Amino acid sequence: MKEIELEERDQKLVDTFRALGNPVRLRILQVLALRGTCICSDVVDELPLAQSTVSQHLKVLKEAGLIVGRIEGPSVCYCIAPGTMDGLSKDVARLTKSLSYAEECCGPASENTCCGKGEGCC
Hints:
The protein is mainly alpha-helical. It is built from five helices and three strands; from the N terminus they run H-H-E-H-H-E-E-H.
């Protein structure tokens, strides 16, 4: 299978979507957003999962750059990475804008003239 080469910012968006594509990881972000910061055991208390499973999900979120963790004694305290949600919002807006032409182009067949044929071409 051939690799698809993406620009760095597009690859980061793919990695972010992959991390957010799991309901457990989305819930972890919601917990962190509500609490501000959480020790891993606090997150575990919010979910019906083993501590090791939650830790694996936290690792994926951290690798995607969505959260940061700092060691506090024997525990790790996690929070949403500063600027992450603003950056994600801008990246999604950029993607949406870049894809909006296709939406305009591929409207009802009677109105579709993007291919220059004056007829439905999508």
